[in-house]
Design the sequence.
């Protein structure tokens, strides 16, 4: 089993739709969780951190479910500009080392 | 302010040649990371620096790969005797410290012919 798994998609949705992605992680000792966004042929950029209580930033809501070991990202009222690959990142502390484990990403295409 | 910069933006080289890739992190960022990303693939972690030391080199794929960081700032990633499978985009990221958000540079696209 991969350490961080994401459905690669692509998810094709119309403008205005609500879409949700999940990301599962295998190590229960994982400490912190993030969603990054990567546009085609561009570098990744932080979209939002994921807090235990869940957090919302405008149209984006992130949730963490430790019991089932997954995080989710919900996008409401999708815009054309939301088309990108969404990368799930899990931080794992291992002694003096802190590892960031990246998922392969979920591709989203929002269509007019 | 200035973000993370990388040079060159594109590098085409012949198999067997050595290449050096450069990363200028955001000023004051103590943590620096190198990743590579092949076409259509996810990010592959290579190495992490905290200051000038590299506590985690676990991602370097072979002994042909090495990296250094001097003055707690600029880092270079060197690939010796390049192979075609080394072709990828090499991304550098920096963060204020290891707990903070990573900011990525635009990457160096390496093509080994």
Sequence:
């Amino acid at each position: 089993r991969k350490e961080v798994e994401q459905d690669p998609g692509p998810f094709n949705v119309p403008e205005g739709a609500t879409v949700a992605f999940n990301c599962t992680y295998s190590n229960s000792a994982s400490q912190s969780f993030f969603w990054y966004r990567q546009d085609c042929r561009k570098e990744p950029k932080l979209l939002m951190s994921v807090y235990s209580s869940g957090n919302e930033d405008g149209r984006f809501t992130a949730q963490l479910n430790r019991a089932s070991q997954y995080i989710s990202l919900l996008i409401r009222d999708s815009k054309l500009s939301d088309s990108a690959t969404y990368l799930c990142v899990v931080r794992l502390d291992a002694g003096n080392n802190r590892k960031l484990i990246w998922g392969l990403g979920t591709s989203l295409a929002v269509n007019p | 302010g200035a973000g993370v910069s990388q040079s060159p933006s594109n590098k085409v080289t012949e198999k067997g040649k050595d290449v050096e890739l450069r990363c200028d992190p955001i000023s004051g960022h103590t943590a620096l990371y190198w990743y590579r990303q092949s076409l259509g693939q996810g990010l592959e972690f290579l190495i992490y620096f905290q200051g000038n030391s590299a506590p985690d080199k676990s991602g370097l794929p072979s002994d042909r790969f090495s990296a250094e960081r001097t003055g707690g700032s600029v880092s270079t990633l060197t690939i010796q005797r390049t192979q075609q499978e080394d072709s990828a985009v090499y991304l550098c990221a920096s963060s204020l410290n290891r707990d903070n958000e990573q900011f990525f540079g635009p990457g160096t696209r390496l093509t080994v012919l």
Summary: The CA atoms of residues 62 and 73 of chain A lie 5 Å apart.
